[in-house]
Predict the structure.
Amino acid sequence: MKSIGLLGGSFNPAHAGHRHISVEALRLLGLDEVWWLVSPQNPLKTTADMAPLAARVASAHHAAHHSRIHVTDIEQGLGTRFAVDTVAALQRRYPNVRFIWLMGADNLAQLHHWSRWRALAARVPIAVLARPRYTSFALTAPAMAWFGRRRHGSATAGTWRKWRLPAIVVLDIRMSPLSATAIRRADPAWAAWHFADSPSLMPDPTRKLLWP
């Protein structure tokens, strides 16, 4: 069965830090691919400084630059807002694929605020990638306390397909200092640079399979 890591987010904009954790996930988890799920609108984030979806998708294509990292706006086509619903839809459509949810340590710190996050953990293993300033706090987050003994050591990350759910692993990787917030502060008009790109002309493996 093909193994795919799902990295959801606003990608507002996407940057080399997203690519770094994706490449590390490919290596440490033995994945065939990583899909970047560019969210139409993160329910926990304001729309105030959110760039249009087309610009964020274009920035993701520009930043990914890897044959096994695929960018998709599949949530818009599925009509899903929450990670648990997106994963459920993907599992129904791709029964022969094993998915694992990827997230930065900053998201682990707020996971307990996600809609039906325990149901998400019951559907797929979760792999947490280190992020500067967030990792220590994330390890003491309410969600991490709930996982308890369901946490696996990073040395066993390659065996994630055999884990009984719920299951979580924190991967100790070299940290990237990049952040979308810092990029927006440095260049508030960043999205204008990406409107010249056309996401509709870029390959999206999920679109081909979902809407032939």
Residues 198-212 have pLDDT under 50 and may be disordered. The chain has one domain: 2-210.
